[in-house]
Each structure stands twice: as structure tokens, then as C-alpha cells.
Amino acid sequence: MKFCFIHAADLHLDTPFSGIREVAPEVSDALQRASLDAFDGLVDLALERDAAFVVFAGDIYDGAERGIAAQLRFRRGLERLSEAGISSFIVHGNHDPVKVGWSAINEWPERVTVFGHKRVESVTVEWRGEEIATVHGISYEKREQTENLAVRFERGNGPGIHVGVLHANVGNNQDHDPYAPCSLSDLERANLDYWALGHIHKRQILRTDPWVVYSGNLQGRSPKHSEMGAKGVYVVEVDGTNIAEPQFVAVDKIRFQELQLDVSGMDLAEVESELLALGDTALAKADGRSLLVRGILRGSGDIHEHLARKEAVDELLNELRTQSEGHTPFLWWESIKDRTTRAIDLDVVRKRGDFSAELLALSDELKASNEDQDGFVHRIVQRLPISKLSRLGVKLPVPDDPILLEDAVMLAIERLESGET
Questions:
Q1: Model confidence over 316-353: pLDDT tens digits?
Q2: Which residue has the higher pLDDT, 97 or 39?
Q3: Which residue of 6, 56, 276, 327 has the fewest C-beta atoms within 10 A of its own C-beta?
Q4: Chain mean position to CA 199
Q5: What is the pLDDT of residue 398?
Q6: Residue-wise DSSP of 365-391
Q7: Burial tier of 146 (Cβ tally within 10 Å: 0-12, 13-18, 19+)
């Protein structure tokens, strides 16, 4: 039998955006509604694709509070799925563990399975009179789940394809907490056909045999690199026991996006004009979504000195926000990052044979080999003065948004050329 199922994770329903609320409460409110609307979009998609079942791989809610609006909206969505004959399978993760937080829901719709925390449970999926799949899952008992839960899974004798649902950190991803840590080998040993994973917000397919997949979150939550771009779910087509490559479908309602501009040779008026034009173009391509935009300024020349003046970037940001008011859907400038440098002729530096030339040579070698760039960037960044780091918006020890190798090198060269120690 041919069918499809939907893999979703990290809904974080009703997330409060406290940081944005301080400067733009209306944007914060829109973001809070967006997580709920994105979930409704997931339900609409499941109905449209006539999915056999939906799996939710943890962090349904953002925290222990579990707002009433989020709980009621979630239940209504599951009820719509159940009434259409679509089963739902839910595990809880570190943001909404079973033993923490308040729940206003005591009973779930008929076709809903919420996996407990004591052991891995296995449930058969029946669709249109046939047993098509076996879904295995386990929830977190508490937030700090440090046990390797993956080793508890085993295929067993259930019918159809076997799907594991788990909130976990596979391969020790440093950008996320090390909860339910495991390796690809641990997942392989369970002999399942598809691992529906949650916890990592950047969607990615780690393996194809078996399928080991992070769907990412439904709705972007911040301007961090992993939260930018399209967010949604994977639709997985199945023909008998053959699983096709998962298809990503965006369901987000507001999108975080980064816009880069080379400002070499520009004055501030031109910078503002070009950024506004980039924003308008991005909004036109967003398929009716609102945008939260981070502008990244690159390049060198006189503009660097203008942007380095006290409060210049903040004032530019305020002007961009003012000029972008009135858009529907809206565009809100989250921040501007100044990554410009003084005008330095790198070709001249390369020919000198000094330390700066050696640094550039190492940078060129790393870029060509594409190896150990993160380690190199961190070594450079750790040695930069706080003033330079502040200009990049960097928070040590780990930057919120990755600094490109070129940025780190240029800042180091700038410091060397200016005689800073």
C-alpha cells in the first residue's frame, strides 16, 4: 500500500518573545501567534496530503507553563486529524517533559498516542483496514535527560515500516544541549526504517539507510543561524516498505532572514537605500509571510569610519524600522551587524612575507580545504578586543550567529595593520 506520513518536531507552541517585546511588542505578539498558526498549517497539510499518521518528536510546548491557548489549539488540531482518520504520535522533550509543568488536558482524541517516559512503547498504525507501520517512542521524564535513550529501541515483530520517534542530540551537536545523547551507530543497531528526530532546529538528513532525519522546528524563534530561513515539516512517502526521500514543506508564518550587503564605496544614504531595497525584494519573495530581517554589512573604505561612529549603526537601524513601517505582511529589522573594515590592499599584504601575510596564507589554505574553519575562527575571535567583538554582535565563548572565516581574518588583519596589540 502507498501512503505518506508527516514528521514534525519542536513546535514550541506559544513561545514568549520577551527580548523583542521590549522594543516591538506588536512584533512579539505576532511571533507568539505564528507558532500556533504554523501548527494549524501542519494540520491543514496532513489533511491535504491525506496522511496516514503524523509524528511529533518532542518540545510541543516551550516550557512548563504550557499556556492555555497552546494546549487548546494543540488538542483541536489533533481532533481534526483524528476525525479524518489520521493518527498522531507524540513524545515530550526537554522543554515539556512529562513530570514537569501543568497540563489542562486529561483526555486526548481517539487516534492520539502520547508516549510515556518509563519505557519505549510500540504502537501499530492501522490505516484503511491495513496495518502499515509500527511507531516506537519514549518521552522525557525530566528536562535534563542525559541517558542515551536510543539504545532502548528495538524493532520487534510489529508490522509494516518501523518508525522511531525521539528527542535527542545525535553526534554531540555543540549548538544544542546534550540531552538524550546518542550516535548514528546507536540508531542503526535498533534496525528501524526511519528515525523521526527532534531537538536540533536545523532540518537535516543525517543518514539514508536507515533514514535518520531532523525535521527542524515549525516556526523560527530567534535570529540565530539555525533559526533562519524556511521552517516546516517533512512529508515522507512510503510504497510498501520502500521509503522515498523526505520532502520538506514550509509551514512557518513569519521568517527570520539574513540580508548581506557589500557597502564598499557607499555613503550612509546609499546604504539605507540599498538595505530597504533588499528588504522589499525579500518580502516579495516570502510567499505572503512576514519577515524579521538581520542586515550584515560587509566591505571596506570610508564607510567603515562612518559606521564606527558612536551609535551610528543603532541610528541606521531605527531609520530602517521607521521606513519599513506599514508593510502588510510586515518587515521588521531585527538588527544591523557592521562587519566592514578599513581599506586594506590584501594583495600588497600577501607579498610582504610578514605575520599578516602568513595569516592570509593560512586563511586561503583553510578556505580551499574547507577543514577546521570553525576552530580557526574561534581561535581568532578569542583574541580580538571586546570593542571589535561588540561591533560584530559576538557573545563569547560561542557566537549566536557564526562568524565567517573572512570576517575573523579581516578583523585580525585590521588589528595588526593598525598596530593594536
A1: 999 999 999 988 899 999 999 998 887 766 677 787 87
A2: 39
A3: 327
A4: 10
A5: 44
A6: HHHHHT-SHHHHHHHHHHTS-HHHHHH
A7: exposed
Number of H helices, E strands in the chain: 12, 18
Q: Out of 105-109, 174-178, 386-390, which region has the weakest mean confidence (pLDDT)?
A: 386-390
HSE of 215 in the Cβ direction (CA atoms, 13 Å)?
37
Q: What letter does residue 300 receive in the DSSP assignment?
A: B
pTM: 0.82
C-beta of residue 333 within 8 angstroms of C-beta of residue 314: no
Taking the domain 2-250, which CATH number applies? 3.60.21.10
Q: How far is residue 195's CA from residue 210's CA, in Å, rounded to a whole number?
A: 8
Pairing of strands 87-91, 112-114: parallel
Taking only the tens place, the pLDDT of each residue in 276-312 is 999 999 999 999 999 999 999 998 888 988 998 889 9
Cα 258 from Cα 38, distance rounded (Å): 21
| Angle at which helices 405-417 and 373-382 cross, to 10° | 30
**What is the model's pLDDT at position 278?**
97
Record the cell numbers describing residue 166, joined without a space: 525521539
Amino acid identity for residue 184 in this structure: L
**Is residue 251 pLDDT above 90, yes or no?**
yes
Cβ neighbourhood burial of 82 (10 Å; 0-12, 13-18, 19+):
middle
CA atoms within 13 A on the CB side of 255: 21
Domain extents in the chain: 2-250, 254-343, 346-421
Structural contact between residues 210 and 217, judged by C-beta atoms closer than 8 angstroms: no
| DSSP sequence for 186-218 | HHHHTT-SEEEEES-SS-EEEEETTEEEE---S
